[in-house]
Write a structure and sequence with these properties.
Order of helices and strands: EEEEEEEEEEEEE
Strand order of the largest sheet: 4-5-6-7
CATH topology of the largest domain: Neuraminidase
Largest sheet: 4 strands, antiparallel
Structural class: mainly beta
Number of domains: 2
Length: 179
């Protein structure tokens, strides 16, 4: 799945399949300017910053079990968001520091380091990633991902895929080759 925020005409947090299909709003009320998003892949939670409402909130992947993690004026200066273990990490654009806070209740806020100019944050861990099961976009015997000549996007499950073409090309009638 792909998760993203939108604060155009109607602010929302959404998800869709990697090919853009099955677009679903998971948060569309009591939300104004969601500017950063982080996922807890293990427990299937979506965290976001709303700088207008000055809050950090969380829901599950279906938009249920919504909770406010923290609220207050300090939120308006935050940008970027990452979840790792028991903490959320973000960047304070006002004093250019990396902040860590408890992701369950917003307590234990600590400035970890100062940065020159950052608007985003990511956490990478050293532990090996879990093995990925075989999927529809694996390379075929000719080295083409999912048998697609350009781009393979997973669809509604790891067994389904959609082929797409790079800019300037169109998908052939076979649904795999680009011309």
């Amino acid at each position: 799945k792909l998760f993203f925020t939108d604060y155009g005409n109607a602010a929302k947090v959404e998800r869709c399949d990697m090919d853009g299909m099955n677009r679903t709003w998971i948060v569309d009320s009591k939300i104004e300017q969601p500017t950063a998003l982080a996922l807890d892949l293990i427990n299937k939670y979506v965290y976001w910053l709303d700088i207008y409402l000055e809050s950090v909130e969380v829901v599950d992947y279906q938009g249920r079990r919504r909770q406010t993690i923290t609220k207050g004026r300090q939120i308006r200066h935050l940008c970027g968001l990452a979840a790792f273990e028991n903490y959320l990490y973000t960047v304070n654009s006002d004093n250019l520091s990396i902040l860590r806070m408890n992701r369950f209740n917003g307590t234990d806020v600590q400035a970890l380091a100062r940065v020159d100019n950052a608007k985003e944050i990511r956490v990478y861990q050293k532990r090996p990633q879990a093995a990925v099961r075989s999927h529809a976009c694996e390379a075929d015997p000719h080295g083409m991902p999912g048998g697609c000549s350009h781009i393979c996007l997973l669809s509604s499950s790891y067994k389904a895929r959609t082929c797409r073409c790079r800019t300037g090309f169109i998908l052939g009638s076979d649904g795999r080759s680009c011309k």
